Amino acid sequence: MADLDTIERVKDIDVDKYKYGFTTEIESERAPKGLNEDTVRYISARKDEPQWLLDWRLEAYHRWLQMDEPTWARVNYPKIDFQDLYYYSAPKKTPGPKSLDEVDPELLAAYEKLGVPLREREILAGVEGAGTRVAVDAVFDSVSVVTTFKAELAKSGVIFCSFSEAVREHPELVKKYLGSVVPQADNYYAALNSAVFSDGSFVYIPPGTRCPMELSTYFRINEKNTGQFERTLIIADKGAYVSYLEGCTAPTRDENQLHAAVVELIAHDEAEIKYSTVQNWYPGDKEGKGGIYNFVTKRGDCRGHHSKISWTQVETGSAITWKYPSCILRGDYSRGEFYSIAISNGRQQVDSGTKMIHLGKNTSSRIISKGIAAGQSDNTYRGIVSAHRKATNARNFTQCDSLLIGDKCGAHTVPYIEAKTSTAQFEHEATTSKISDDQLFYCQARGLDQEEAVALIVNGFVRDVLQQLPMEFMAETQKLIGISLEGSVG
Amino acid sequence: MLEIKNLHASIEDENRAILNGINLTVNPGEVHAIMGPNGSGKSTLSYILSGREGYDVTDGEVLYKGQDLLEMSPDERAAKGVFLAFQYPIEIPGVATMQFLKVALNSQRKARGEGELSTPDFMRLVKEKSAALNISQEMLKRPVNVGFSGGEKKRAEILQMAVLEPSLCILDETDSGLDIDALKLVAEGVNKLRSPDRAMIVITHYQRLLDYIVPDQVHVLSKGRIVKSGGKELALELERNGYAEYVGDAA
Fold first, then answer.
1. CB-based contact (8 Å) between B111 and chain A?
2. Is A266 helix (H, G, I), strand (E, B) or coil?
3. Using the beta-carbon criterion (under 8 Å), do B164 and A446 form an inter-chain contact?
4. CATH number at residue B135
5. How far is the C-alpha of B214 from the C-alpha of A475, rounded, in Å?
6. CB contact under 8 A, A442 and B90
7. Which residue range forms the structural domain that includes residue B23?
8. Contact A460/B95, CB-based, under 8 Å?
9. Which residue from B84, B91, B95 is facing A445, i.e. has the nearest CB?
10. Are A347 and A318 in contact (CB under 8 A)?
11. Burial of A255 (0-12, 13-18, 19+ CB in 10 A)
């Protein structure tokens, strides 16, 4: 019913009305191709940034020039020509589809299966004008929802806004925390991001405040077009709690092939941050062409005692995923968690894992990683668990399970474990299994077709991690897992 | 219901003939027992009827409700009412038994063009069927067959059968690994499902099960052929004399 409702409403809207304004806007914000100091200055100027931020960007740029692209990950791709990219509001090279009729039917079928509302489908598919339409037309439910929620957040003192807005409205917070977890020169892609980041999200939860809602689910449309170099900064002050959701289960097309985001989380004394991601970028065609390269740096700093940071990720998209959400367990009694489901199919390459750096006393961490490889994909878990010599009684439990579907894919586990104190207790368990013919036949003999059977078995395999996801993401994710593995058997 | 005509089959890649011309007709409402020594082809027959890969049918045909059964995929057969109770039920980690039942039932309903059962209706159905088989709600929350005892696995198979309400039930050595109490419970569950429009094929090694599930006909399978058919008294005769006579006959 809800879907029909949306269809009716979309029909009511005059598509052409907003199209031209939208196009003009894009034209005017185009930065020249390529990367040099001027590009960085241009971006900063376009955003009216203060001098200190421009200096910060330029420093990052100069550090980046001296760095080399990392090659240690188990991924293969043609060398990226960084001078052949747009670095600001990269405009579409070809005009977007005019309506859903012109969109790849395969993509639409995927939206259909996921139950994405029609209006959101247009935006996700990049239909021209669809993005602005939502902002203009206030009758849509979710827009009023957004307004209501913003008011509610303000009441509790929570700051949740775009990164640019934070630079303008809360410069002291941005200045204090930006780069304090992921320094400019942390790694090649983080340095690139620091120089040219376009926008992103900023969250500050004041002391003793429990954020009244899961952040960002309802904002997923507004968050569109934040670009390929996203920057997210989340601070939970003493005793604060926040749960943040990033991404979208619906497959998202993007003209920008390279994505290098940076996410920084800071948890003060007794604060807790729960960060959940569902990533479903375009994985490329059957030969793996045209898919997104996703080189992300995500790190959380458990700065205060008894603080906690929990990462939960569901990675199903992108041609290449290079991603290690990590926790620095600095505060005594702090805790880090990493729950991951990484699915690769076709020619996808995933190299993902986590780092748990135990610095404080009595710190603990837990890693549950579920890798599923199908088709001709490669799926690697790479992780570090380390204990500093002062991290007495550090505890870690790691479980890495891999599931193989078919005989042309690969699963690899590369754990590094370093303990510099004899009081540390680290446990590591790893398993590799295949979906057996017996399991498939058993499900089929009960009436499931082959793809339903694979989806059910895989959903069982990842259950421990699924349960960590916020309720509203769980059902969608279960469906997504099935869709991601379509065509992986038979 | 089911007509098997001159069925010949071998194991794929091995070219080894397992079934050598089986003929069997099962009418609605009937219970047929198939008995025979190890290696006589009993399990192969059940797998071929339910559509498992890995076998080549080299001759003959199987008609189910007048349709060519061998042309259908395993899930199509299930939706059309063919059910195999496995000799060794398979474990599916992380998938709750309850969820498995629901997905299975709704997949079949969907394939038949019926609507999905609502959750309350489904819960009511499972509650009723599981109580009769002495299956607790706690057991339904556990992953499918994972850590189940032999008796629990077989009871869970019969529960699936009761919930899915198939037309043709094939029970492959459902008695193996059961103590006498569990055997009675399972047999009761099966007997409850006997009805004029449902047929059953009970594959067993021993006569014991047939004390509780009384068949209309008994067939002796040896070296891939039915070498003797008779009434329920044939099972008793086999119990006394063993299979030696028939093994010799077929050789």
1. yes
2. strand
3. yes
4. 3.40.50.300
5. 46
6. yes
7. 2-249
8. yes
9. B84
10. no
11. middle
